[in-house]
Design a protein that fits this description.
TIM Barrel; six-stranded parallel β-sheet; 14 helices
């Protein structure tokens, strides 16, 4: 029912002409860059999303869009295409980015950017943020003890509580080693053999062979998303923070054969960042870094706090349209209530 209501609201915004008015106003307001942030490419109609965006926005390769944004207006050559510039980004590097959106990018001739986690590309392990739900809902045990607390799993409520407890423990880990040790322990306690996934599982990470094939097409570019996707602000050791940021770039450049200039913070809200994290990214040599703070970018935007609009392939295309135009944010702020669009699955955290 909630999804139906969201679609109805979005349809009203679209067919009333408010979306068109919002785009007109944005064009008149000065230079902006819209950056959309997806994760998964399955579970919805990504083709419909891309078809709309390619008609109504000027979709650019990420670095080209940033260079255009930060080039002084007087030094730019005026383009005949006056549509608002937009960039499509996908975080984490799920296999379905290769099987679904890569195919569409080539077919529709639309550039996309993926922010990769090299540690997962190399290990093939399941992403840690998927594990709490998988452990809790798939274990055959009737009860489990995690961190000294007993969870009774005969009821849905108990499984939900276990999933949340595991996720909280993983999210607040003070090091990658601590996080991985807890995952190993949870696997044993809940009777799971390992975390390696089948090759055809769309939730698994990309392989380097898939990454290189995508880049060689000319329609996919790559940025950095840390080496192992920790919550950077929670890392206790400053040296580990620097390694996560710097080693990620080093490995990507070695695998791709060229410089990597863009970075996306894991779960890029300000409470997970801070000056130390931002400084580490700057010192690692990146030119630009992306948060998941809602909004549009302008020539005055801090290049290490660039904004993105979080969207999901599971959304109806009309809801995505309202998101991209800024209307969802505008009306939710007007009503002073939490964003009505925060109905994604937990994979959207990343």
């Amino acid at each position: 029912m909630r999804k139906f209501i969201l679609v109805c609201i979005a349809a009203c915004l679209y067919y009333s002409g408010l979306v068109k008015l919002a785009l007109w106003w944005q064009r008149r307001s000065g230079r902006i860059l819209v950056v959309l942030n997806y994760h998964r490419a399955t579970g919805g109609d990504i083709r419909r999303h891309l078809l709309y965006l390619s008609r109504h926005y000027r979709i650019l390769q990420l670095e080209a869009a940033l260079e255009e944004l930060y080039t002084p207006h007087k030094d730019k050559q005026k383009t005949w295409d006056q549509r608002i510039p937009l960039v499509l980004t996908f975080d984490d590097g799920y296999h379905d980015n290769y099987t679904h959106v890569f195919t569409l990018a080539r077919e529709l001739r639309i550039p996309i950017t993926l922010f990769l986690i090299p540690g997962y590309v190399e290990s093939g392990d399941r992403f840690w943020w998927l594990e709490g739900k998988r452990f809790a809902h798939s274990t055959l045990l009737n009860e489990a003890v995690i961190d000294g607390r007993i969870y009774y799993l005969d009821f849905t409520k108990g499984r939900k509580a276990l999933a949340q407890a595991i996720d909280n423990r993983l999210r607040h880990a003070r090091s990658v080693e601590e996080r991985e040790a807890f995952l190993t322990s949870a696997c044993e306690k809940l009777a799971f053999p390992d975390r390696v996934m089948a090759e055809d599982d769309d939730e698994r990470p990309l392989t380097w062979a898939e990454v290189r094939e995508m880049e060689e097409s000319g329609w996919v570019s790559f940025g950095a998303h840390t080496m192992h996707h920790p919550m950077l602000a929670y890392l206790a050791d400053p040296q580990e923070l620097r390694r996560e940021v710097e080693e990620c770039r080093t490995v990507l450049e070695r695998q791709l054969g060229h410089s990597v200039r863009t970075f996306a913070y894991p779960v890029g809200q300000m409470k997970y960042l801070g000056d130390t994290v931002i400084q580490a990214v700057r010192q690692a040599g990146y030119n630009w870094a992306f948060t998941t703070l809602y909004g549009f970018n302008t020539p005055e935007s801090d290049p290490y706090l660039l904004r993105r609009i979080e969207v999901s392939v599971s959304q109806h295309w009309l809801v995505m349209v309202a998101e991209a135009a800024g209307l969802w944010y505008f009306f939710s702020r007007l009503r002073k209530v939490p964003f009505v669009h925060r109905h994604f699955t937990k994979t959207s955290w990343n």
